[in-house]
Q: What sequence folds into this?
């Protein structure tokens, strides 16, 4: 295998910069072309959300490239969801019954900058900013760019071109528009959009709300969430319909109405947000959607990765983690088939696509779970039981959330199959009063419930497998 092959990566976001680092570490000659200015030098928001939930699949990727020790100082642990009811009462619902399982809040810009630094430190990796890819000639392995600095168009040939240019990928657009192979593509928008707001730090630089949680104000058809930042602030995100319900993005047109909306539904948050009305009208409202497509690659010439291949809605906090996991999975396939790009791309897509489809679907499910169910009694009872099971049987029980978030060696698809069956089993059993939970359950009572849940879960998985086989 020749490492003289040159590689182009289009997009130096979270996935592209990690991929550049990994391929650079493997000895490839890599050039990254990023549309935006260098976020380490220019004060631009890194695009999309300001901070993100970072968890075990992402951590595994950082370990692969050997920079976890540099990433951890950027993290704020979030041990659970801090649920705020309409009166302002709060309760902390842990993410897991195992204390060592938690997610982290991390700055998108901080993490992206670190990945760029690490990639750029390698002699065989070069990163060019202000270079926008306009299209990719995937048959001939040529990428077309526009350089914002000298205002020139130019083209560049490569052995392989990776498209890590995010949800609006130019490379994916070329696949679609060229109509040279059977390219399937779907894009589904939610009727809800989002807007980022903020809770500023106290004058002393402290946190105005509990630091180590992901705060949620779930209100049925809409919700507010807040994640902590290292400077003491919180980034707050409002998820709301564009056009339905009494309050929606289209009719929140005056400062008075925005404040009234928050006074009615998010009173305790409002008291921490004197800057609300300004934030609201200064910050953009953006749409949320799921992109699925196939194939991700054209022969051995080009490959889509990260959001460019599979953009998902943010409700499982997994988009970045999944994009990082792409690089881990790709690296494993490369170990097996290095030297034959077409086989690498084929094998990678074959094993990976079912997992990214699974997390896309789980993320949609979690939207309703977050905005509705966290407030429903049966859901809370299920979570309480699952926390008790995880605590009592730490090696044998994991909720769907734990399987997805904390079990980086279980694929998303397996996590989805098992997690959904478990949920169904528990919810049915609670509804049928086959199991009842109380605060002082004995070990023996819990063990009985645990066994019931496992048996019922296996039955559901078997039934689903049989139904699928018959369907085929
Ligand atoms: C509101 C919101 C909240 C989220 N929260 C979470 C979370 O909590 N946890 C989580 O894991 N994920 C979260 N995500 C998902 C996460 O943001 C994405 O999955 C992740 O950014 C994907 O990385 P990427 O590198 O594939 O794409 P991006 O991060 O979008 O990077 C793409 C890069 O390509 C560049 N680019 C675009 N077009 C071109 C072009 N034509 N030429 C050259 N360069 C180009 C862009 O400037 C950008 O730098 C969230 C997303 C949103 C919208």
A:
């Amino acid at each position: 295998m020749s490492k003289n092959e040159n590689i182009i990566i289009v997009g130096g976001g979270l996935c592209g910069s990690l991929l550049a680092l990994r391929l650079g570490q493997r000895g490839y000659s890599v050039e990254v072309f990023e549309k935006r200015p260098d976020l380490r030098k220019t004060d631009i928001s890194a695009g999309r959300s300001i901070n993100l939930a970072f968890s075990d699949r992402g951590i595994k990727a950082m370990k692969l490239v050997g920079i976890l020790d540099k990433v951890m100082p950027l993290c704020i642990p979030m041990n659970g969801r801090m649920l705020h009811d309409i009166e302002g009462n709060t309760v902390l619902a842990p993410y897991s019954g195992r204390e060592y399982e938690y997610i982290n809040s991390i700055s998108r810009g901080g993490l992206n900058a670190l990945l760029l630094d690490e990639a750029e430190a390698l002699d065989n990796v070069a990163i060019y900013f202000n270079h926008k890819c306009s299209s990719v000639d995937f048959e001939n392995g040529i990428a077309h760019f526009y350089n914002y600095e000298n205002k020139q168009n130019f083209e560049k040939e490569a052995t392989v071109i990776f498209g890590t240019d995010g949800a609006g990928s130019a490379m994916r657009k070329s696949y679609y528009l060229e109509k040279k192979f059977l390219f399937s593509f779907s894009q589904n928008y939610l009727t809800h959009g989002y807007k980022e707001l903020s809770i500023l730090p106290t004058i002393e630089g402290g946190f105005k709300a509990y630091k180590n949680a992901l705060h949620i104000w779930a209100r049925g058809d809409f919700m507010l969430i807040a994640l902590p930042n290292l400077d003491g602030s919180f980034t707050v995100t409002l998820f709301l319909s564009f056009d339905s319900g009494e309050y929606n993005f289209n009719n929140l047109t005056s400062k008075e109405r925005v404040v009234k909306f928050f006074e009615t539904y998010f009173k305790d948050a409002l008291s921490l947000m004197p800057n609300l009305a300004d934030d609201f009208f200064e910050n953009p409202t953006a749409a949320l959607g799921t992109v699925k497509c196939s194939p991700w690659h054209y022969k051995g010439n080009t490959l889509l990765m990260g959001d460019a291949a599979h953009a998902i809605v943010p409700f499982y906090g997994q988009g970045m983690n999944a994009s990082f996991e792409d690089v881990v999975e790709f690296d494993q396939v490369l170990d097996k088939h290095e030297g034959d790009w077409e086989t690498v791309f084929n094998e990678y897509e074959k094993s990976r696509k079912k997992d990214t489809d699974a997390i896309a679907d789980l993320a949609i499910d979690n939207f309703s779970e977050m905005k509705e169910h966290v407030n429903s009694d049966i859901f809370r009872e299920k979570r309480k039981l699952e926390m008790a099971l995880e605590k009592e049987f730490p090696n044998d029980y994991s909720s769907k959330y734990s399987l997805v978030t904390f079990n980086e060696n279980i694929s998303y698809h397996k996590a989805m199959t098992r997690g959904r069956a478990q949920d169904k089993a528990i919810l049915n059993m609670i509804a049928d009063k086959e199991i009842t939970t109380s605060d002082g359950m004995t070990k023996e009572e819990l063990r009985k419930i645990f066994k019931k849940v496992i048996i019922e879960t296996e039955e559901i998985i078997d039934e689903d497998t049989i139904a699928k086989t018959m369907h085929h």
Summary: The pocket of flavin-adenine dinucleotide is lined by residues 10-16, 33-36, 47-49, 52-53, 132-133, 164-166, 170, 194, 306-308, 314, 317-321, 323 (CB under 6 Å). The longest strand covers residues 184-199.
